[in-house]
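User: I'm designing a mutation panel for Response regulator and want to avoid disrupting the core. Could you give me a predicted structure to guide residue selection? Please restate the sequence first so the numbering is unambiguous.

Assistant: Good idea. Sequence first, for numbering, then the predicted C-alpha cells:
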Amino acid sequence: MAIRVLLVDDQPLLRTGFRMILEAEQDLAVVGEAGDGLQALDQVRALQPDVVLMDIRMPRMDGVEATRQITGPGRDGPAKVLVLTTFDLDEYVVEALRAGASGFLLKDAPAHELVQAIRVVAAGEAMLAPSITRRLLDKYADHLPSGEDEMPDTLHTLTDREVEVLKLVARGLSNAEIAADLFVSETTVKTHVGHVLTKLGLRDRVQAAVFAYESGLVRPGAQ
C-alpha cells in the first residue's frame, strides 16, 4: 500500500513542488494539502494520512502547535510528522521535536532525501540527520545543561549499556552504526533502544536525542 502523505505549508508553490516530487514515486500518495495548522488538523482527521509534511511558520496555527495536537499524549492515530525547516530562520524546531515530530528536514534538501525521509518516518523510525542535529543543538547550547548539573532521576532507571546506546542515538547513529560501535547485533541494539524509549516515556529516537542533550548526558560538541 502507498504511504499516504499530507502536505502542510502556507506557500502553494512549495506544496505544488512537493506534490510533483512525491507523486513520481509509486509507493507515495499525496492525499491532501493544508495552508496552515488549523487546516492541517481538519485534514488529518478527515484523511488519516501516514505522514504529515509540516512547515513551521504558518498563519492561524503554526507547525509546532499543530504537531502537538496531531501526535501529543492520548493521540493514537497513524500520522507521523516530518517537520520542514529553513533552519536559519526557524527558531522552534526543538519545540516541534518535543511536541512529537519524528524528525526534520531542510526545505532545500534534494528530492531523494525528501522521499527517503518520508519512507523512514512512515516505517516508525526517526529522521535524525547527524549534521543538522549537531548544528541545531549547538545553536541552543546556551539553553542546555552544562553537564555539571545533577542528572534526572529517570536516567538511573537505565542500565549502563542502555546509557551507552542513548548517547550514540544522540549523536545520530543508526542501529547498524551503533551495533558496529558496540560489537553487538542490530537486533540487540533495537531491543536496547526500545527499552530506553519505554523507560524514559519517549516517542522515538528524535525525542531520545533531545532528552540526552537536555538532561546533560550529552553536550554539544562532545564525542
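For picking mutation sites, this is relevant: The mean pLDDT is 83. The radius of gyration is 17 Å.
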